[in-house]
Write the structure tokens for this entry.
Amino acid sequence: MISLNEIKKPIAPYIDEFEKKFKASMKSTVPLLDIITRYILKTKGKQLRPMFVFLSAEICGKVNDSTYRAASLIELLHTATLVHDDVVDDSNERRGFFSVNALWKNKISVLVGDYLLSRGLLLAVDNLDFHLLKIVSNAVREMSEGELLQIEKARNLDIKESIYYEIIRKKTASLIASCCACGAASIADADEETIKKMHLFGEYVGIAFQIKDDLFDYEKSNHTGKPNGIDIKEQKMTLPLIYMLNNSSFIEKKKIINTVKRHNNNPDRVNLLIDDVNNSGGINYAREKMIEYREKALDILAEFPDSAAKTSMEQLVIYTTERNK
């Protein structure tokens, strides 16, 4: 599989410049904040979201100052949501490093998340980027709705396939959609139709991305040689499990739901359920759906003129569904 560094080549200078601008956008006069934001920068992920922004801009026109602000705005708001998520989930780890709340506790973490959110908002407002702010604010609203919908449905474990797609569309896909829409919207002469097209493209990519994430739960971990089963432990109903439920008898359904509700911390029961999901055809079904959404995204991309950025975007879409972590 092609590496991210290869995919990044057409926009590598923009990403390097973005890193400097993003670092500057997090600066504060409060020493504690600077220590924490430096730590966050040190533990950053693969930078997929800025890549989506810059590639979208290049596909639709040419990267400019507004594109850098779009990428920084999204990354600031995304980082804020991650800091807050770790507090909500009481998580001590993020990308293999200690989370902010593990090191500085919840109160400081919430305030840091608020600070990052405000920096993003001010970056847009100070530069009159209201069109970008609207796109990203809608994504943050949808992400919150998606999380709450998932929590609500997890109580009764009554998630239908259509509800699952609604949850992941809001929770994950909305942010990737906003990356692509903001990249397009940062172009001076961008038209509404192109922005909407890039938003839908990003939404399809985001859905495929999340299905791939959900599949990891049923695959063997590099550390233990056993599947993680984390989603089952957290009582999250993902597509492979939903497929098995939809194709089970009433009695079998009751057993499955009983395991997820009452025995989700029993490793033997969880591993048995994972084996059942694998044997039910749920994994293959989820993979087929993931590829279906990936192809929908590539079909939209095919409508744009050929360019190095378009080729990289195609590779990035494939990367999101073939990555191994």
Remarks:
- The longest strand covers residues 93-94.
- Residues 222-226 have pLDDT under 50 and may be disordered.
- The CA atoms of residues 181 and 199 lie 5 Å apart.
